[in-house]
Amino acid sequence: MAKLSAPLFTAEGKENGMIDLDPEVFGIEPNLDVLHQVITAQLAGARVGSASTKTRSEVRGGGKKPWAQKGLGRARHGSSRSPIWAGGGVAHGPKPRKYGQRTPKKMKRLALRSALSARASESAVRVVDSIDWTTPKTKDAASLLNAIGATTKTLIVLGASEAVARKSLRNLENVVLTMPGQVTPYDVLWSDVVVFTTDTLLGADGTNAFAVSDDDFVREAVDAGEKE
After folding, report:
1. Are 128 and 197 in contact (CB under 8 A)?
2. C-beta atoms surrounding 101 within 10 Å
3. d(CA 135, CA 96)
4. Alpha helix segments (H runs only) across the chain
5. Measured in whole angstroms, how far is the alpha carbon of residue 200 from the centre of its chain?
6. Which CATH number fits domain 4-30+105-227: 3.40.630.30, 3.40.50.150, 2.60.40.10, 3.40.1370.10?
7. Most buried of the four, 3, 128, 206, 214, by CB within 10 Å?
8. Which pLDDT tens digit goes with each residue over 102-149?
9. What is the pairing mode between strands 154-157 and 4-9?
């Protein structure tokens, strides 16, 4: 298996050599079938499923027969809330439901490694030394991304201890932030560049950036963490 590496940058955006990438994570042959199935499950899990319509039994009114059964030359009707009436109930309309699909963790793990390997093969992986900024500044974050060549859609994996960096980066356009254990194949393939810090890449903070979540959709959990 070929040796893989990615450019390493300082928190100020200066290139600081190369860093080795794990070939078991970044050097496998992407499994497109598994990728498709896992991403489909993730997008299904992202659906709210709150669409709702009223049936004829739930629409207000319609208890009285509109007119006599016979003698008027009109079609027979028993209720003005019938689906064929304006303002009536909806036949076979949507009701609140869950669209989530259960995906085995082995498949999610393979899909994540396939997506990361695809990005690594395109030289689209960057690594930044632990970002130890003292105060959050969006201007500094934008300068860093420009320096490392992440000027388009970018996925950034930050550790729990890098709160200042998270506040600096979260307002930038076309930037998605995630945490170790919440990296998803969809986010990796959505991005043009994937950025790790040395902590999230090597697991120095005791977490694993390549672990998979129990949920098929984890973006809400990430957003909630950023708002704290």
Report:
1. yes
2. 14
3. 44
4. 23-26, 32-45, 105-121, 138-147, 163-169, 185-190, 198-202, 219-227
5. 18
6. 3.40.1370.10
7. 128
8. 899 999 999 999 999 999 999 999 999 988 888 999 999 999 999 999
9. unpaired
